[in-house]
Amino acid sequence: MALSRSARLGSLATAAASFLVIAASSAPTPGADGIGDPYFPQLGNGGFDARHYALDIAYNPDTDRLDGRAMLTARATRTLSSFDLDLQKLEVTQVDVNGRRARFTRDGDELRITPRDALRKGRTFTVTVTYGGIPEPLGGPIVFGSNYGWMKTGDGVFVACEPNAASTWFPSSDHPSDKATYDIRIKAPKGLTGVSNGRLVSTYDRGGSTYTHWRETRPMATYLATATIGKFDVKTGRTPGGIPIYVAIDPKLVNSNSVDVYAVTAAATDYWSQVFGPYPFEETGAIVDDMPEAGFSLEVQSKPAYSAVRNETTIVHELAHQWFGDSVSVERWKDIWLNEGFATYAQWLWAEHQGTRSAHDSFRAAYDARPADSAFWQIKVADPQRDTMFASAVYQRGAMTLQALRERIGDAAFFRLLPAWTRLHRYGNANTADFVRLAEKVSGRKLGDLFQEWLFTTGKPAL
Ligand SMILES: [Zn+2]
Residue 23 Cα, ligand 1 centroid: separation in angstroms? Predict the structure, then answer.
């Protein structure tokens, strides 16, 4: 067979065209500057998947200066000519990609990095950022009007970063949809303790400094990372159920006898392990600091951080988040009720477990306390909007939703659903539609009307 001249030319042209298409699809392009979360469009970054952060930080409370070196191991999800990390305010002095110096520019909270060679799709790469400065906390309406993030205390710093303040102290892909494991090394003046996530690998003094190395081997959202530094009395051991526990309390607060943080942490970790499924992390615990002006506590992974001595209800709430929020994380911030509604419902379950009040009565109290014309009922729980993402409705109406669900599907199905949820999405991300789907599957019931009324509609639902 012989090709005709015109056919041959046509086929060559087609071949050339398809070559161009292939080249275009694999040509290096810049990574996106955000993952497109409607509440925080520039948080997180597109084009790679963060796998592991190795953070080395040195902090001096006298000067308030942080010096850091962050090495991120990531996998390119497409071929990248450049990519972004999130970093707020701190100064960058050097960036290396795969051990070679890379160019970088700053644009607001974005750090744009251009490696010498394109990063091929599917390949793992490392980026090391050397940086430093005086970290500033964030403020504004989001976190109950409080400052949050990197907060200076009398003897160090209290670090609690939900939702968007992790990038005030380390360069990162600062969105919960991009979870990673961590090694966190803290250098602080001798006598101070650096407390972080996961398990303590080593601690030692050298010169005038104390070095502490922590390792979190389970995937963690950036906002759940901490490097809280100060004077701490530390108590370690195991819960009665056998889970390692590490509780650090500011010595100024040790004699506050309002609650036994260690005992409540141990008991709640064990009880939630029965109700919600196996404890997802290697260690449980608490960090109790003297930072009362922060006014909030955070479910820091493996060790909730309390800005003061908090009550038993707060402790059981933060520990419930280890399943709901930390292990199963939101895919987008509008799903925040999957964290706060569940942790609030856990408070009701705790009271039921203690025999002080049934969850039904807690539901009725929360429902009856708010008249139909209250602004409380005007928040759409499954999409509360950025500045009201921590509105009380997200907590209370979120918890009411779960009690309404429990009363519809019955205790047997409801208490199969909770551990099924934490098992299905363990260490991952999930959204409201995923929960509705699983609730229908586990119960064998159509539940769209219930969730529509409680989560997606404003106004006070009729009982
Ligand atoms: Zn919470």
Answer: 48
Contact 200, 210 (CB under 8 A): no
Q: SS3 for 124?
A: strand
Domains in the chain with CATH codes: 28-224 (2.60.40.1730), 232-325 (1.10.390.10), 329-455 (1.10.390.10)
- Is there a contact between 305 and 228 (Cβ–Cβ < 8 Å)? yes
Mean pLDDT over 297-317 rounds to 97
Separation CA 127–CA 170 (nearest Å):
13
Q: Are 348 and 364 in contact (CB under 8 A)?
A: no
Cα–ligand 1 centroid distance for 51 (angstroms): 26
DSSP per-residue codes, 195-251: E-SSEEEEEEEETTEEEEEEEEEEEE-GGG---EEE--EEEEEE-TTS-EEEEEE-G
**Helices 261-276 + 312-320 axis angle, to 10:** 40
Compute the distance from residue 294 Cα to the ligand 1 centre, in Å: 15
**How many residues are there in the chain?**
463
Residue 256 CA to residue 251 CA, distance in Å, equals 10
The pTM assigned to this predicted structure is: 0.94
Average pLDDT over residues 153-170: 98
Work out the pLDDT band at 258, boundaries 50, 70, 90. confident
For residue 360, report the distance from its CA to the centre of ligand 1, in Å: 20
The alpha carbon of 111 and the centre of ligand 1 are apart by a number of angstroms equal to: 30
Ligand 1 center to 298 CA (angstroms): 7
